[in-house]
Design a protein that fits this description.
331 residues, 48% strand
Length: 331
């Protein structure tokens, strides 16, 4: 196991945020067809923290490696991960503790040319007690700007375990990224929450890339409200054996419901889709999106999320995989 850790560290650094806009933008990259392009800090995925977690003895006592996008480091022990101030990124790799310690690993570093990229994979996580499988959960691989509230203590309301978004005041035209995709081609998806039987969900599974800009504010009771300033979303549904570089996801501003480019997944977040963020007291609370901002409004926060599956928590097709690299903002 120690040799595995050394291997991951040497190449550039795996159930169930708050930085200024200047902190999430790296040095400007060369201009392409846009006026300017700015990499998001650590969006080249060349540095990773490797965590060694030992699962509870009743589950087999296995040691597993979890990976986080942050300056190269190794953490050994069942230690809840805290957001690194030098990285705005979080992953779906988590340590859960519900009386026993269990991990879920769906995001991995992978070699690409002379550096690394991130591999996001949808997979089934099983929990075996005394060698008998009694819980099976579907977990998709996800990268996002924000932080996870570890340790995870239940599978209920998974969005409430994530603090989504970073302070940001610019108005990009697009999110750019390199990607490569593998889809399973299964006609239907699977829903597996760990409780009850697995069920089929109609429709193929797609990877999803989202960029949102919000204008947020907080009331005296610590509730967070927001208006949607900018929206961009794309679902990847084809296998691409070769890398597609600097792929743009366009950002549309203002109320876009009558825009020909509007898609269902671009609507305001309500119900089970509501996202969460930390308020000024450090408590994670729902972000209540109450409407669309004017088209020329200045945002206060940026949200970026890339996932190997769409459709919500515990839903997807095992094997769906997206590789991502070089995430940037174009102006």
């Amino acid at each position: 196991m120690k040799e595995q850790i050394k291997q991951f560290v040497s190449i550039g650094s795996l159930c169930m945020m708050l930085l200024t806009s200047g902190q999430i933008i790296a040095q400007s990259a060369p201009v392409t067809k846009y006026n300017s392009v700015e990499p998001i800090v650590m969006g080249n995925f060349n540095q990773w923290v490797v965590r060694e977690i030992e699962e509870s003895a009743i589950l087999g006592g296995n040691k597993r490696l979890l990976f986080e996008v942050a300056p190269t480091d190794t953490i050994i022990g069942n230690i809840a991960y805290k957001a690194n101030p030098k990285s705005p990124w979080a992953t779906s790799n988590v340590m859960a503790n519900v009386g026993v310690t269990k991990t879920s690993v769906t995001v991995y570093p992978e070699k690409r040319d002379n550096g690394q990229c991130a591999r996001l994979e949808t997979r089934m996580e099983t929990c075996k007690v005394l060698g008998i499988v009694n819980i099976t959960v579907l977990a998709s691989g996800t990268l996002f700007l924000g932080e996870v509230q570890e340790p995870i203590k239940s599978t209920k309301n998974p969005q409430s375990k994530l603090a989504m978004g970073v302070p940001f005041t610019k108005r990009p035209k697009a999110l750019l990224l390199d990607y490569k995709m593998k889809v399973t081609g299964e006609k239907d998806r699977i829903k597996a929450t760990g409780f009850g039987k697995m069920t089929d969900v109609p429709g193929e599974d797609y990877a999803e890339i989202t960029i949102l800009l919000q204008k947020r504010w907080e009331d005296a009771d610590g509730n967070i409200f927001a208006k949607r300033v900018g929206t961009g979303s794309e679902r990847i549904h084809k296998t691409t054996p070769n890398w597609i570089n600097e792929h743009p996801v366009e950002v549309l501003y203002g109320d876009i419901r009558s825009n020909a480019k509007f898609k269902t997944q671009m609507q305001l977040y309500t119900g089970d889709d509501v996202k969460y963020a930390k308020n000024k007291a450090g408590k994670v609370v729902p972000i209540q999106e109450i409407g669309w901002a004017e088209a020329n409004e200045q945002p206060t926060h940026l949200m970026v999320q890339i996932s190997s599956s769409h459709g919500g928590a515990y839903i997807g097709s095992p094997g769906n995989t997206i590789w991502v690299d070089n995430v940037k903002l174009a102006y």
